[in-house]
Amino acid sequence: MRDTYNDWNNDDHPLPEVKKCPFCGTQGILCDNGYEEPEIDYNTGAYVGMDISEGDVFWVECDNCNAQGGYAETPEKAIENWNKRYKAE
Question: Which pLDDT belongs to residue 34?
């Protein structure tokens, strides 16, 4: 499952703008391989917490045509990779 971030900021500064897809014009979305899953007590069915795994691989992907900008170790680099492919209108 992918975890997507829109207007996500890191702890120190806002992330760069993610450009629109150069193929279809849809907004690109920053993604990572982290996940969030609710923890359920299967005996009672009660919610007991959240299992959260932070991502360590990032990429930008078009939500419409699924074009990708390549994998990176940081959100900033993933956005840079995607934006390099951007063609101005």
Answer: 83
